[in-house]
Amino acid sequence: MYGAARQGRLVLRTLRSIPSASLSSPLVRTLPSNTRIVPTQSIRVSLFSSTSKYGQQHAAAEDMGAEDLSHVHREFSKFSELADAGILDQRIVNTLSNRMGIQTMTEVQRMTINECLDGSDVVAQARTGTGKTLAFLTPIVQRLLREPNFNTRRASIGDTRALIISPTRELAEQIADEARKIVSGTGVQVQTAVGGTQKKYHLKLMQRMGCHILVGTPGRVKDLVSDPDSGVSLDNIQTFVLDEADRLLDIGFAPDIEEIQSYMPPREMKDRQTLMFSATMPRTVVGLVKQTMKPDFKFVRTIDPNEAATHESVPQKVVYLPGMENQLPVIAEIAYKAVQAHKADPTNNPPFKAIVFLSTINEVKMAHEVLRNMREPGTKGGLFAPHPLAPCKIYEMSSRLTQAERTRNSQAFRHAESAILVSSDVAARGMDFPNVTHVIQVGPPKKLEDYIHRIGRTGRAGKPGEGWLILQDDERNEFRQLVRDIHAHNISEDTTLETATLDMTQPTQLSAETGKIMQMVESGIRAVPMGDKAKAYTSILASLVQSSVRRPKQAVVDMANNLAKFGYGLERPPRVSPTLASKLGFSGVRGLEYGGGDFEGSGSGSGSGSSGFRGGNDRSGSGFRGNGRRDSFGSNRGSFDRGGRGQSDRRQDFDRDSRFNRRGDSDARGDQGSRW
């Protein structure tokens, strides 16, 4: 996949150099619990780094140096057949068929379950949404149930037989939920260890209920096993699973994985099985394979090299914008048109369900607040008025949220028929969200894998989907490099979105529909507190500096300031601390407002012509006030209109809006007017 076959010889040579190890030993571990075994060779971070921006990173293929089982014929296709053959416990099959409604195995399950049951180390490459989770959970539970002394005593905290590591809290909890369904009525205890939750609470659960299968994120699992007072032990570990292995390495968990393994018995003393599952097999995984897998591990690829991958089969469109201030209007236009298309023709247009990816958590919060607070122009009722995208719900997903909020939002989005999930990369990997019709990525991806796994959220299980990539006009070279690296021929430039062509710094004539969309965005912008706008502004400054597009520092500040003025409706850009400005290399650059983080003074003056920042909360309009000359998105907004109206009509709109602002903040949000 992605040139894997051509590069597989590199992996073959590397893997042949792996020293052989004892696969089984009668020796019993005699070291005390929580004793670290320091490996003679550490997992170096350099092994996991890419040599190029998008990289030619896919090195694993059928000649990976392991036994390739990708083309071995499997006689079983149903779980009941495994039970009839004595391979799988009947209780598992009953749960799968009766409670979960699963009778037929997917390709990855059919090709890996039997191999995993015999204790072999397995590396499996399979796309997301193909049943990878069940492929490793089923063998784990089966191995537990066939232990002769299982269930003869109550489970304890030191009985952990399987450890499953996931890169995100959401994916870990999703795996644990699936595991609890499978083990229903068997006595197998499943516990979680994830960050963002109360460590003591989960520890007490493990102490009270015991633990056979532990599912967690690297940091929290490391904290537990390294704490001598926790009682959590890996002395009895039988199976070690790394799900989304490439992602674990990509986001820097290599040291944590190494430390976790140091608390497991050495293989010379106690054998264990290691399973790796992932949608891609980049060269970064080779270093981890060397450190964790047995020399005779087996490789299973359930992806036909002649079959198009998700990013090669899902139609994708790229949109180039004249400025960052166009980003939110473009997202709103995509959503509005898709919602209207479903209402007009539900047979041929499925309910709109999208994931919008942004680079930073502050941008995520900003976009979520804008989309959530959008209202139709001219409607009464303020926030209680119908949402223009109804019945589409708006959810947020980022590391800024508590674990409870993230779990609640992911569950709500998963079960929603029509919804938008505004997300950072936390939702890009492994999470199973059904019926996602659109993936919208704002800005160029940092790595090839980021783009592939984001697109992988849509077009799953044969369902329709489409991808959108929203870029700035000076990011065309980044896009061309991306297209070359992913070998995709189904990406085309889209020129149908009117909001993408607007020069929002200049007077413009708008169509009625685009004027309506811009007013919807305006109403959402109005509701965002000044502090959130300031944080988004600062994050964008830093993100532009760190971008692979080399821009002059003055151009970076100008881009961010145009966003603040014409996108956020601010009279003046938010203040930036001198220390941060110096770190970002902005010394001597014009256009920055310096301060100590006090947002209150970011907008100067008062009255109808000012930005109206009161107490840093900007809920009254923040530059959207309209006085005939200066209005939302900066200056001369009176020249924008929906078409077919005279200048006198526009002046009347501005005058009416000014009267609203003089009456007070609460009235200002009740009527969005028709000033476009």
UniProtKB/TrEMBL annotation:
CDD domains in UniProt: SF2_C_DEAD
Domain Helicase ATP-binding: 113-299
Ranges of compositional bias, category Gly residues: 597-615
Biased composition (Basic and acidic residues): 639-676
Chain residue ranges for the region called Disordered: 597-676
Leading EC class: hydrolase
Ranges of residues in domain Helicase C-terminal: 334-503
Family matches, as PROSITE patterns: DEAD_ATP_HELICASE (PS00039), HELICASE_ATP_BIND_1 (PS51192), HELICASE_CTER (PS51194)
UniProt-listed InterPro entries: DEAD/DEAH_box_helicase_dom, DEAD_box_RNA_helicase, Helicase_ATP-bd, Helicase_C-like, P-loop_NTPase, RNA-helicase_DEAD-box_CS
Record's keyword annotation contains RNA-binding: yes
A GO cellular component annotation in the UniProt record: cytosol
Catalytic activity: ATP + H2O = ADP + phosphate + H(+)
GO molecular function list: ATP binding; hydrolase activity; RNA binding; RNA helicase activity
Keywords per UniProt: ATP-binding, Helicase, Hydrolase, Nucleotide-binding, RNA-binding
EC number: 3.6.4.13
Family: Belongs to the DEAD box helicase family.
Protein name: RNA helicase
Protein's organism: Capronia coronata CBS 617.96
